[in-house]
Structure prediction request, 705 residues.
Amino acid sequence: MRKFYLFIIALVAISACQNSTNIKKNMKDQNPLLGTFKTPFGVPPFQEINAHDYQEALEYGITEQNKEINHIVSNKDKPCFSNTIEALENSGHLLKRADMIFENILSANTNDTLQQLAKKMAPKLSAHMDNILMNNVLFMRIKQVYDKRKSLNLNPEQQMLLQKTYKNFVRGGALLTTENKAKLKKINSKLSVLSLQFGDHVLADNNAFELLVTKKSDLSGLPAGVIEAAKETAKEKNKKGWLFTLDKPSLIPFLQYAENRDLRQKMFTGYIMRGDNNNANDNKAIVKEMVNLRLEKANLLGYKTYSNFVLEESMAKTPQHVFELLNQITPSAMKLATKESHKLQQLANEEGKHIKIQPWDWWYYTEKLRKQKYNLDDEVLRPYFSLPDVKAGLFKVLKKLYGISFKKNDTIPVYQKDVIAYEVLENNGKLIGILYMDFFPRPSKQGGAWMTAYRKQHYKNGKNVIPVISVNFNFTKPTATTPALLSFDEVETLFHECGHAMHGLFSNCQYESLSGTAVPRDFVEMPSQILENWASEPEVLKSYARNYKTGKPIPDNLIKKMEESALFNMGFTLTEYLAASYLDMYWHTINKPFEGNVNLFEKTNMAKIHLIPEIVPRYRSTYFNHIFSGGYASGYYSYVWAEVIDADAYQAFKETSLFDKATANRFREEILSKGGTMDAMILFKNFRGREPKTDAYLKKKGLKK
Prediction:
């Protein structure tokens, strides 16, 4: 009888095991995120994926990576680079793939269901990462390998992977007591949710604001193209009149040209009060909670401030070095901005306007002054910068520099109908990677511009896995009568984000965690900012800037005016950026819990740097997505840090020629292809032959003759 029962139990166990296997098999077959992507080049099958698929794939991915981690820690063999460091690097493939796609869609094409799912999954994903980083047995294996690193005969990329893996665990809490590990897990879980809520609130406030103009007289001063776009926006929302929104293609021209000062104030106020309206989308409490949690996290890990924790892994290394850089530039920038404000006030006085220049007047009178001084404004230039022509010009620049080409492929799935997919090819036709280009604003898309990856370049089983990169913008939409016409700022933005794309596409790294843009925050902007330089070079302008109606290239006199006005309004541009950089640093160098008023903190600290009242920081605290919903906390300064480096690097081309093949190949090889496999300063020195100098940057900004 006992044997019979044992036999039955065995059958049940086998059946249960088979059922479990079948469930997993069915899940993989049915969930498009878990199986092999049967798409061109293995890109994500966007149209097949629904919200439930994301949740299922993320949860399944967590389970599978846990099994892989257990396999590493239970390995009886002596810890070595292969069975511990590489094994960890290669774990979690399904989770990383699903999470990368999910995070990108949240930014580019979100909805209420996805936003709620993100909030549900954020604590689970945070806990999963913490469980790995605080796994004592796993860390001891890593430490054993790390302690023997000098005798392991590793190549430079392997050495970097080992070093970063060990540091990630230490910075992730591996050395904390059990009690403090529990505290850190709780902090990380809270921060993951708060970060999502912050971004959702900004997007909701942005979408909620509308300025509906019903009287033609209130359109006075606005260019015809702006009026036409507003008419179409109103029509799309079944409204009569002209509808203006806080999306940059609507906001900026309105501030530049609308003669109705009250409406300019309404638009500007709507923009700078996002997240600060004491409604359901208010972010002040979130800011307070996030900065305090970040301070607590830093203190737990042994750092005085959150900035000290973050900057340890940057080129700057310390908050002191960041403040030193900002303090070098700020006095000259403020002086310039003050002079500019006086000129704007003088212009308003000359017009007989009895007003004191306010932030909502700056753009308007700046455009008037630009026209008066240089007979130039954005609307004169826009006809020469149609998106199709600018894009073709960008592709031509990249072809001349690196020999690459872009082949549109309509068979590649995209996540939204406006997105265009390209194959990026070497000169010999070899495929480098896939590039998505997403140009226009929509309610489901966050503001600004960014580059991201749906798949990072790496090697698997000795075979190169090509990257799938995306660049995202919020450009002026085409209308029924005109193509998308860009301001020159938007032209530079296109070049900028495609500079990031080259960093991702040209990557040639063994390991995914080191590839592409996996470099210090204050170095990552250098490859993007250097490409901006070509956009304004006269010989390049002549190749792509063509009047969309006549097809004629931009005339020499307009190019000359662009050159002459290059430093115009530079005080404002630098000052609003520097103010935001200081605001970021002040929030993250607090060394005791913040219990005060968020707006008062902001006002007090802006007074410290003597910010003039006519200028508002580029990002106020309550909509500063970079630092509260992105990865730039204690890192917003990095744009100016990287600009110093890029200005110096660009001189290498100016010293030879704009399209010098040897210099371009060296830049691709020494910087763009290397990812984070070496120290950033070493990468720069390998390209330039020395450390960067500030001379080129100071001259470029008009701060030094």
